Amino acid sequence: MNKDNDKNKLDTVALTPLRRAFGWLKQIALFMLFSIVITGVMDIWRGKDIPRDNLPDIKGMTLSGTDIDIDALSQDQAVLVYFWGTWCPVCNFVSPAVDTMASMYPVVTVAMNSGPDDKMVKYLQHKGYEFETINDSNNDIARDWSVQLTPTLMVFKDGELKYYTTGFTSLPGMWWRMLLS
């Protein structure tokens, strides 16, 4: 009888790390699901002021001298538009992911109230960012679009706004939005 008790204790001890790992995975999955739901609700609430019909144009010249027209650019493929600022702490975490996306998809960024062109060029070079940037030094484009929070990401396809999100967005989150549009 002692042998059976000892064997049951060994089985319980052996399963404990496995059960513990499964418990942690379950907690992580629940946290991720909760986060997705909360961020989705927040995006809807924050996006209530973003125009959906009769959208203003996003046109401009990038710091590299390229003329950009999001409506025309989005006719063939999805385009990620990223409103950000050099002064935005969250943008420091999102901008590297946007730069990675720029190597796979068309990406246009709009730098809000971030200073004169020469400072922006130096900033982008210092950070190693290669994405196309329209310097919206007076916030004219951001004001037309009612963008008040940074970072703000939008996905356009066929001239239509398909996805809109504000705040921290991960690389997989951007990638999925681009694939789904």
Automatic annotation (TrEMBL):
Transmembrane parts of this sequence: 24-45
Segments forming domain Thioredoxin: 44-181
UniProt entry keywords in alphabetical sequence: Membrane, Transmembrane, Transmembrane helix
Single Gene Ontology MF annotation: oxidoreductase activity
Keyword Transmembrane: yes
InterPro entries assigned to the protein according to its UniProt record, in alphabetical order: AhpC/TSA (IPR000866), Thioredoxin-like_sf (IPR036249), Thioredoxin_domain (IPR013766), Thioredoxin_ResA/DsbE_sf (IPR050553)
Keyword Transmembrane helix: yes
PROSITE patterns membership: THIOREDOXIN_2
PANTHER family in the record: THIOL:DISULFIDE INTERCHANGE PROTEIN DSBE, THIOREDOXIN-LIKE PROTEIN HI_1115
Protein's name according to its UniProt entry: Thioredoxin domain-containing protein
